[in-house]
Description:
Layout: H1 2-16, H2 18-47, H3 55-78, H4 83-89, H5 92-112, H6 118-121
Amino acid sequence: MAxxxxxxxxxxxxxxxxxxxxxxxxGAALASLGYLWLHQAVESLLANRPQRLAWHVVTRFSLRxxxxxxxxxxxxxxxxxxxxxxxxxxxxxxxxxxxxxFIQIREGWSASGAGEDSALSDK
Length: 123
């Protein structure tokens, strides 16, 4: 996910300038932080099946979307960074998941030999 964020920031820097790159990086950082907090909450819930979750896990899980909303609204109202760039950065976890899916599919095909024609290899 970090490589996707870095690549997107570089593309935004080359294509739109410093403000667009900063907006994309901010959105990517917010999305990555939200993903990290979600991952920690799910991991702690499933790892040891506690009767109650720790208060910091619940707080972080609960603050994910309000934090993103406040930051996006701040940049919408002030115009410090382009709103479209911030919103595009919020999709970094989705792009990271797609990249991971493509890697898993490629590894599955190479492990099963799906690239070979099985009818021709038997002869």
